[in-house]
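Collaborator request, handled under Task 6.
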Amino acid sequence: MDYSYNIAEIFYSIQGEGTRAGLPCVFVRFQGCNLRCTWCDTVFAQERHSGKEMTASQIIEQAKEYNCNFIEFTGGEPLLQKNINYLLEHFLSLNFTVAIETNGTLDISKLPKDVIKIMDIKCPSSAAHIPYNNDNIAHLTKNDEIKFVIANRTDYEWAKKNISNITFSEVKSEILFSPAYSLIEPDKLVEWVLNDNLPIRFQLQLHKYIWDPERQGV
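Structure tokens returned to the collaborator:
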């Protein structure tokens, strides 16, 4: 079947975050999210039914036009889309490197094993009222990533406490701390990380420094 999906935008850019930052990447941004983070930078993708409907075939054909075999599914929250695995498996069958960014509140256990999972755990300043699903941690591998966007010292201490618990100590995934753009100076977060000798990777959102941070499609 050619399932339909609610799409906010599809674009070609560089990966701005994570261990694959700087690589050319096709982004498929789904419409609809179950959270309302205070510092959300994709507010236009929050409402479930304000995007456009596209079939799997249409998404695949548009993505193939960019001649790039690295694709990331983001949002909004991709796991709200019905039949998401159908689309992910199609791209895997076409030999794409496939990544999905999720806020961690929904079950990731049924995702195809070859999909790179980027779990963006929301810190207190986000005011996201749905906690991440702790069971998801057990389904992460060394190819996956856990991201904390940090806006202040409270966020930092909360993230530090989370990665020190026994569940996280067993995680083989890369753990990333990212300063919330314009809300905290990057050097302040780096200072805290170095003072505490945390086993994390610091990152910046490259696309917000290359282009206008309000610009879509980058």
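The cover message to the collaborator said: "The first helix runs from residue 56 to 64. Strands lie at 4-14, 24-30, 52-55, 70-74, 97-102, 116-121, 145-150, 174-179, 201-202. Please let us know whether this matches your experimental observations."
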